[in-house]
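User: Before I run my own analysis I want an independent prediction to cross-check against. Here's the chain; please return only the structure tokens and, at the end, one sentence I can use as a sanity check.
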Amino acid sequence: MPRLTAGRYLRPTGSGERGQLAWSKCPEAECLPSKTRRVWVARGTRAPLAHIFDAIAGGNPVEEIAEVYELSLQQLVAIVRFAVESAAPLPPNRTESFNYPSR
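Assistant: Structure tokens:
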């Protein structure tokens, strides 16, 4: 199994507080309770979103991240897309989201 390198740690929350993403609105994320707090994970897995974004920030290839965390590439892209679009809302004169180039 590939080994991921560490990057900058991101702590997703579902509250939608200023500076935080509202993960409860992402169809590819779900919240699991833990003994000390609630943890946002990729839906259908136990992979914390914070660890996924840590791996992305560490420069790991997306294919490797998907394999390690047992995600489909589509699920990984949907999570990242949600984060990007939520962190940088569209300008008032734009109504459509960014069209990602197909490979």
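Sanity check: The two ends are 26 Å apart (CA to CA).
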